[in-house]
């Protein structure tokens, strides 16, 4: 390949990708050598060196799988295997994935391409790969038991079909799904249009990521696969904030973000500072007449959404799931709300028994962002992320779209924090503070009631958090 990407560290892997044309017929009859990637960094887009040209996507904290061209067929080699994924700095999870990573690499092809995918199963149980959203022969759909026998451990199966329609797709097992998806087996698939498409605009930057979720006890490494809804790690491409890279763009870039949801709940995805249009789903590009501006779009379970906007406002714009419990990391959330509760007496009693007992949440939960509370080894802090003005108090499904006028075209390097022009940051008021006006008709002034209770009753609200379902 002309584009020798720095992640192709293995010489063999580089040879496979670089010299497809020179490979002998004997080698072509063999499997394409699997290409692995173990770093969680966002890799630069993989510019195609064979086949029709297209504008490649950028996989957030991920990469695109190189292919080899074999008699006009694009050949890929996916290896299903156990992987270690760094979910955020200092926190590693033992997952299952493909080619060294969870999620697996993004596969990018062009409408009309004939694609052959070798899938080698290095797991301890059988698997299969379902190509979510694709038009293909029924026997290539990857539903074990229904359309094919499952791929036994240690075996390699071949899938082959033509990528018939352009769009945003994903792949995942359709065998022991509950286990294999809870363990992180999934990946993105993009089929680019073969020519200008009336409903697919050209963009300057095209980002992709999958929404996924894990239940990993603090201090543990392996997800609890029996969890149905109460996950404690809400991730993008198996990363949690502050481990998620920013989406870096140049001012006035047209930006597309493609999102797929393989969690067990919906995620209202919210962008600050810009309005976007939903331009596509896993069903294909949306008709122009159906598009209206939004700043939040819900991505339901098993759905994909592609959003587009003109990045014409400079700054560090938050981009996150709007469910506030999804922008937090592992926590015991069977914790009662303590705001406004005076527990001095209780604490005195408890510290007689447990000297290190610590009260949480008396003034809110913001203290958690900066608290130097000892965490078990290998645990992501609950809400953290140092920003230029202090803790961002976020975890989970949170990142930023960083818009900069001096970002070079094609440069995805983090430009650091936005430098706000003078006078454009919220500031403290230090003048006189008159009493703020308050609504004065509370209870019975505008509508006098004769039989009001004589004594004022103050209601203590205690939010139930025990059996919370997302
Ligand atoms: Cu969410």
TrEMBL record:
InterPro entries: Cu-oxidase-like_N, Cu-oxidase_C, Cu-oxidase_fam, Cu_oxidase_Cu_BS, Cupredoxin, TAT_signal. Residues 1-29 form the signal peptide. It is found in: Periplasm. Residues 90-195, 221-336 form the Plastocyanin-like domain. Keywords: Copper, Metal-binding, Oxidoreductase, Signal. PROSITE patterns: MULTICOPPER_OXIDASE2, PROKAR_LIPOPROTEIN, TAT. It comes from the Bacteria. The keyword S-adenosyl-L-methionine does not apply. Pfam families: Cu-oxidase_2 (PF07731), Cu-oxidase_3 (PF07732). This is Multicopper oxidase family protein. It comes from Polaromonas jejuensis.
């Amino acid at each position: 390949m002309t584009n020798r990407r720095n992640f192709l560290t293995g010489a063999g892997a580089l040879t496979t990708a670089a010299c497809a044309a020179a490979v002998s017929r004997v080698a072509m009859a063999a499997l394409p050598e699997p290409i692995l990637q173990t770093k969680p960094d966002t890799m630069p887009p993989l510019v195609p060196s064979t086949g029709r040209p297209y504008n490649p996507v950028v996989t957030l904290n991920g990469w695109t799988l190189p292919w080899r061209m074999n008699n006009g067929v694009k050949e890929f080699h996916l290896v299903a295997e156990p992987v270690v994924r760094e979910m955020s700095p200092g926190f590693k999870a033992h997952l299952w994935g493909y080619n060294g990573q969870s999620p697996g690499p993004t596969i990018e092809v062009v409408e009309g391409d004939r694609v052959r995918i070798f899938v080698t199963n290095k797991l301890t149980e059988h698997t299969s790969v379902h190509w979510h959203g694709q038009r293909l022969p029924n026997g290539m759909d990857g539903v074990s038991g229904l359309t094919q026998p499952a791929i036994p451990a240690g075996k390699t199966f071949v899938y082959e079909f033509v990528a018939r329609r352009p769009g945003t797709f994903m792949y995942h097992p359709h065998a022991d799904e509950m286990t294999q998806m809870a363990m992180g087996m999934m990946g993105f698939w993009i089929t680019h249009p073969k020519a200008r498409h009336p409903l697919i605009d050209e963009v300057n930057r095209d980002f992709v990521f999958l929404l996924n979720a894990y239940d990993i006890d603090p201090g543990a490494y392996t997800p609890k696969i029996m969890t149905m809804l109460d996950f404690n790690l809400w991730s993008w491409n198996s990363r949690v904030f502050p481990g998620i890279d920013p989406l870096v763009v140049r001012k006035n870039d047209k930006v597309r973000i493609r999102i797929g949801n393989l969690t067990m709940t919906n995620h209202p995805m919210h962008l600050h500072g810009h309005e976007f249009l939903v331009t596509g789903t896993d069903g294909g590009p949306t008709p122009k007449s159906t598009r209206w501006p939004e700043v939040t779009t819900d991505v339901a379970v098993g759905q994909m959404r592609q959003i587009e906007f003109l990045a014409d406002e400079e700054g560090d714009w938050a981009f996150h799931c709007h469910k506030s419990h999804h922008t937090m990391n592992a926590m015991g959330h069977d914790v009662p709300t303590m705001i406004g509760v005076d527990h001095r007496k209780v604490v005195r009693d408890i510290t007689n028994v447990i000297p290190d007992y610590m009260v949480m949440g008396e003034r809110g939960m913001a203290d958690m962002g900066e608290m130097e509370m000892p965490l078990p080894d290998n645990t992501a802090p609950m809400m953290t992320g140092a920003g230029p003005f202090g803790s961002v108090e976020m975890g989970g499904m949170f990142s930023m779209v960083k818009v900069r006028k001096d970002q070079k075209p094609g440069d995805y390097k983090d430009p650091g924090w936005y430098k706000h022009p003078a006078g454009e940051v919220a500031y403290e008021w230090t003048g006189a503070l008159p009493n703020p006006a308050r609504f004065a008709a509370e209870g019975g002034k505008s509508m006098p009631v004769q039989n009001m209770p004589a004594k004022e009753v103050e209601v203590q609200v205690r939010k139930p958090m025990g059996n919370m379902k997302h």
